[in-house]
Amino acid sequence: xxxxxTESELEILQVLWKxxxxxxxxxxxxxxxxxxxxxxxxxxIMQLMAEKGILSRDTTLxxxxxxxxxxxxxTKNHMIHDFINNAFYGSAMDxxxxxxxxxxxxPDELQDLKKLIxxxxxxxxx
Length: 126
Prior knowledge:
65% helix; elongated
């Protein structure tokens, strides 16, 4: 399933990806660590996400437990694909160059990047 999560939906998904299945109250507590969000707001968004098929809901217990219905990697891949197409005219290289030009990479990150490039070069020759 391809979807473009809203900012609020993405915040909730990030909580669930990081902490695993949670109740609405737990998700709301994690969200409130960054900014104030009302419980009923979190509840309504999560109910809508479940209706859309973005979250699954376990109703076997008194407290409903929610979990992502879509893998984190699928969501991120779809979002990055859309971002590259919309902001960089489909050029991943332009995006990478922009990011590297705007942010200072650590020596470890540069080493990881070099390894990634080496691995990609080896795959293209095979």
